[in-house]
Structure formats: C-alpha cells, structure tokens
Design a protein that fits this description.
heterodimer, A: about 260 residues, alpha/beta, Rossmann fold, four-stranded antiparallel beta sheet, B: mainly alpha
Chain lengths: ~260, ~250
C-alpha cells in the first residue's frame, strides 16, 4: 500500500471568535496521492485556509488526525515541516531583504550550510525567472514577482508536498498564467501540489482532482471531468456543464452570491 | 535553537542597518530629554555643592535615565507585528526551527543595537565632563546592563505583539510601559523623593536598573546596587522568556 502524500481523517477546528465559538472545519476527510495537483475549492469562509493551516502545522487540530508524507502533523510537527512547502494567501515575504537573501535565509533555517544555501538560492532564482531582480529589495517587486519568490521560498528544501493557498489571488492575467506555468513545472519535477483557489478555471486548468468545501464540510470530491459528467447525468443536461456549475450545485449558491464572494478578495 | 536565533538575529541587524531612520528616535529623544532636563535643573544642583552628584555635574546623574529611555525605543515588536500582519511570520513558523528562535533572534539583534546606541550616547557625553567612575570595565558593564534592559523591554513588547497581532495595540502598549521610566529616582536619589513617590519608585523594577547604571557612573562598583539591578533584569527576563515560550508555542 502506498502512503498518501496528504491524508486528513475527520479533522475539526473550533475556536472562539468575537461572536462565540466558531466550528470552522467539521470533519474533513481527504486523501491526496503523491504526484497529484489537488484543488481545494470553496467560497469565502468555507474553511479552505483553516484546513491548509492545520495541514501545514500552523494551526492545531481540535479533533481528528492528519499526515503529510506519512508524518503526523500534530505529534511530529518538526518532521512534517521538512516535508511541506507553504505559500500562503499573502505572499509572506520580508520587504527589507533582497530576493536572494530571503531564499538563503530560508535555506539556512532548513539546515543547509551557507554554501549549499547560496547554490540553492541561485537554482530557485533561475527557476522562477527572477535573476535580474535577485539582489533588489523585495519591497520593490511587483505582485507577480512576489508570488514567484514566495513559491521559490516554499521550495528551498525540496518539499514532498507544496501547499499553495490562493496563489493567484490579486494577480493580473499575465502573472496568473506565469504562476500556473510554475505550478505545472514544479509538479512535473515530482512535487505533490495542494492548491486552494476561488478561481474555478484555475482548478480546471491545473488540478487532477479536487474537493469542494462548504461550511466546513467536503461537499464534492473527484476529477473535474468526473464531477462534470456526474452533474450532467444527474440533471439530465444536454450540454456539458462547467466547473462553475458543479461548484454552484455543490454549494447551493446562486451566481450572484458567488460573484459577490469572489469580489470580496 | 542557538544557531537559528543567531541567523535570524543577523537578519534583524541587517534590517536595522537598512532602516536607519528607525534608530533616530532611540538617540534623538533621549539626548533631547537629557539636554532639556539638565538645562532646567542643573542650577538647582550645582556640581560642587550637591552631595549626590559625587563631584560630577548633573548630566552624569541624568544620563542613566536617558540610556534607559533609549533602550525602550526598540523596534523589534513593531517589526514582529508587521511580519505577523504580512504573513512572513507564518513562513518562519512553517520552517523546522524551534519557534522560540523567532523571538530570541530579534532579541539578540536588540541587544546589539541597544549596546551600540548606548555606547554612542556615552561617547557623546564624555566631552561634556561626564566621567565613568568605574573605568573602562564599568563602561562595558554599563553597556551590558542597558542592553539587557533593552532586551527585557523589547521582549515584553513582543509578547504584546504576539498576543494582539496588531501594530496599533503594540504601539499603544509601549505608551503604557513608558511612564514606568519616570516613576523612578529620575531627578534626585530615592531618599529625596516625597514619601508616596519613594514608595512608588521602590516597587518599580526600573528604579533598580537605573540605580545600578547610575552607580557605575557616579560611584564605581557598588555591589549592592549592581546586585539589585542584575537581579531585576534576571527575574524580568526569566518571566519574559517563559511567557514568550508559552505564547509562541501555543500561537494558533
């Protein structure tokens, strides 16, 4: 039996919010195979980011268990972090460092020697095509450049699983396509990618399989083509449905509500 | 943890060198207070006729207050909260380092920055007739005391940053701690304060750090004053570190 790259068993997250207790994730089960690009979709506040934060050891699990690369994220968080690369919603970068310095620092924190860290930084700078900007301070980077640097910093230690939380939110169409290319290239090198997004065409273009979460629970899971085929058959549609229609059907939302959610970004 | 803390400390020092404007208040405001306070009160306390000045001028008595004021301008907590809000803090938390290294790294840098600024202030003050009675060794000890206090102060501010995750709240908290610097024997020794002020100063830990610092300038090596000063630093630092470990390890 092969070990799943990401596995979540009945995970829950409860926390105390301003208006009382919030049950943000309500018994999510997931299994992502090694080498997949797995999409995790859902409207705003559905529990996507909370799930990612639990899987990446940034947030504790209230209940259930999760493993990444076969390592339990709750009981062996340090080992799990060596298997995980993380690029969260905000490109989490230090604006006062240069791109190269940031990558070298990240590599040093993963235990690389100074020499190896410098060499790895050069490789990654070339990978994300930031050679000309490598020695400029990050505060002068465009949004797309920051995203690519964030991706590179998530890859310094050659993680088994790369978590990307809304990697193209706020980017112009050209920068979005560049990030898509990067994701494909990273995946071709053997890295499993776990991607959250609000853009359904992004999930359609990149993901082998996806899950839709709504109100903290998984409401659909499968390959995009299979989910569309299932909807077509169930509703007796003549034309092939889009992933948007699968999403609307799964979450019980109307078009205007979804559009509103997307605009909130 | 030690190696990772030093690596992150190096980054914080680089950050300070790239934002020299953030260091300006640490020098300018304490020197301003020193000049204004001495200008207003020096004639009340003439050098040769005021016993507690031990033969020095009033600026020597006021200097410790300015040094501790400078130590309380550390920007570590503001940088930390900026990283929390910007997401870089999570990037660091996702690495396999002991999470306490993130806090300690900034405190290392704060120790170095405060030491350099205190040395600059002392060197500026020497031509104005201030002597360090405890000599070169006392000069170094003075830097250590002030730098350690800077670390304690910044550490507590970092706790506020971790708890509130808000730049506004962190900035506000520094204003809460700020008055502690003035509930001290700032202008005259403790025995010359009014009784209520003497009681307040005696329960204020900053008093003992100020008296330790002042003893090195005016008296030489006063074991009692130094012992109390270091004891206050040790206790407050232990408390700050214990709370920091708890806070960052339970950060969710």
């Amino acid at each position: 039996m092969t070990t799943a790259a990401v596995e979540a068993i009945d995970i829950h997250k409860r926390y105390r919010g301003r208006d009382g207790e919030v049950h943000a994730v309500r018994g999510v089960n997931l299994s992502v195979s090694a080498g997949e690009v797995f999409g995790f979709l859902g409207p705003n506040g559905a529990g996507k980011s909370t799930t990612v934060r639990m899987l990446t050891t940034l947030m504790t699990l209230t209940a259930g268990s999760a493993r990444v690369g076969g390592v339990d994220v709750a009981t062996d968080a340090h080992a799990a972090r060596r298997k995980i690369g993380v690029a969260l919603q905000e490109a989490g970068l230090d604006p006062r460092q240069t791109g190269r310095e940031l990558l070298v620092l990240q590599a040093r924190l993963f235990g690389m020697s100074k020499h190896d860290a410098l060499a790895r930084a050069v490789e990654l700078i070339e990978l994300v095509e930031l050679t000309d900007a490598a020695d400029r301070r990050i505060k002068g980077y465009s949004g797309g450049m920051k995203r690519r640097l964030d991706l590179a910093s998530a890859l310094v230690h050659r993680p088994e699983v790369l978590f990307l939380d809304e990697p193209t939110t706020g980017l112009d169409p050209a920068s979005r396509l560049t990030v898509w290319d990067e994701v494909r290239r990273i995946n071709e090198l053997g890295t499993t990618v776990f991607l959250t997004t609000q853009y359904l065409e992004e999930a359609d273009a990149l993901c082998n399989r996806l899950a839709i979460i709504d109100a903290g629970q998984i409401v659909r899971e499968g390959a995009p083509a299979a989910l569309k085929a299932e909807l077509k058959m169930r509703l007796g549609l003549d034309a092939d449905p889009t992933l948007d229609e699968v999403f609307l059907d799964a979450t019980g939302r109307t078009r205007s509500r979804v559009a509103g959610d997307v605009q909130e970004v | 943890m030690f190696k990772d803390s030093l690596t992150l400390g190096g980054r914080s020092i680089r950050e300070a060198l790239r934002t020299p404007d953030s260091l300006v208040p640490s020098i300018f405001i304490p020197v301003f207070f020193l000049v204004v306070n001495v200008g207003q009160t020096a004639r009340i306390f003439p050098a040769g006729e005021t016993g507690f000045l031990k033969g020095q001028n009033y600026a020597a008595f006021q200097l410790p207050a300015s040094l501790l004021l400078s130590a309380s301008f550390g920007a570590a907590a503001l940088y930390l909260v900026e990283e929390i809000e910007g997401g870089y803090f999570d990037k660091l938390r996702a690495t396999p380092i002991a999470r306490m290294s993130i806090v300690i790294g900034r405190l290392w840098a704060e120790f170095v920055k405060t030491g350099v600024l205190a040395a600059a202030m002392l060197l500026i003050s020497l031509p104005f007739g201030i002597r360090i009675e405890s000599g070169p060794l006392g000069f170094l000890l003075l830097l250590v005391v002030v730098s350690l206090w800077g670390v304690v102060f910044s550490g507590f501010m970092q706790l506020v940053a971790l708890k509130t995750r808000s730049a506004a709240a962190t900035q506000g908290a520094s204003m809460v701690f700020f008055p502690l610097l003035f509930v001290t024997p700032n202008f005259v020794p403790r025995n010359l304060l009014t009784r209520p002020m003497e009681i307040a100063a005696s329960i204020n830990p900053v008093t003992y750090v100020m008296e330790a610092t002042r003893s090195l300038i005016l008296d030489g090596f006063d074991a009692t004053a130094l012992g109390r000063g270091f004891a206050v630093i040790a206790v407050t630092m232990a408390l700050m570190l214990a709370l920091s470990v708890r806070m960052i390890n339970n950060y969710d």
